[in-house]
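Contributing new complexes? Match this layout with retinal.
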Amino acid sequence: METIMTTSQETWLWIGTAGMALGALSIQIVGHGMTQSHHRVTSFFVCAIAACLYLLMAQGQGDIIVSKATLALTPLGIGADVSAKLVYFARYIDWIVTTPLLLIGLVTVGLKPLSGGGEQTRERLGLVAGIIGADIMMILTGLFGALSLDSTHKYVWFAVSFGFFIAVLALVWGPVRAAAAEQGAATAALYNKLLGILTVLWFIYPVLWLLGTEGTGAISLNTEVAVFTIIDLSAKVGFGLLLLTGIKKITGPPAAAGAS
Ligand code: RET
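Output block (do not edit by hand):
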């Protein structure tokens, strides 16, 4: 089991910190003056929050050595086959805040603006609450799994987390996609493109978790940290820039939108 933060990991974590900070900056530049500025705000904070949590990890403050002695989630009397492992818990603090923001970004492309209140607003709020609730539980139960030393406990939590993941996907591929289809070809195409990219990128997370130190330990922590950095930058900076440029193309320059 791996219990040391290596130089390779440190380097990748600094790359993540710098990449997220530059990403936040580039989102401000690309999104400057855009019509739907809420997209700029959420995409900016996704990167800014991740930059902080990467900084925490790069400084060696975002990990915990999980062992029988240090962990509350590890029951006493566990078998002798378990030892200690290093877990970057800071990822889960990042994800629990940024994944709902990313989903809000996607869902506000798909759902058309509401005029007035009424029953429609309530239904809409219920749908968005379902997506965000399931997403938060996906990350929280994933953290429980990562902090578990006993492998039965660990895979029980993995299964629970995966169940919530499927619920999130079912909602964004089902009702939200149907709503996007009613909004005209350009919006539907942008929603479907972002949905496809998000789905592919997000599926890599549970796979890496299973292969990495949280799961089976088939790949080294060095590889895991490197791949997570690349996927995180794609899912946050790459996704954010695609979202902003897509929305800008649909809505046109602010002056024209204001004149119409
Ligand atoms: C975990 C635990 C095991 C089961 C599942 C997981 C899913 C994680 C996901 C994370 C997405 C993170 C993003 C971060 C920001 O860029 C928690 C690994 C299903 C989908 C998009």
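Reviewers usually confirm one structural detail per submission. For this one: The longest strand covers residues 64-66.
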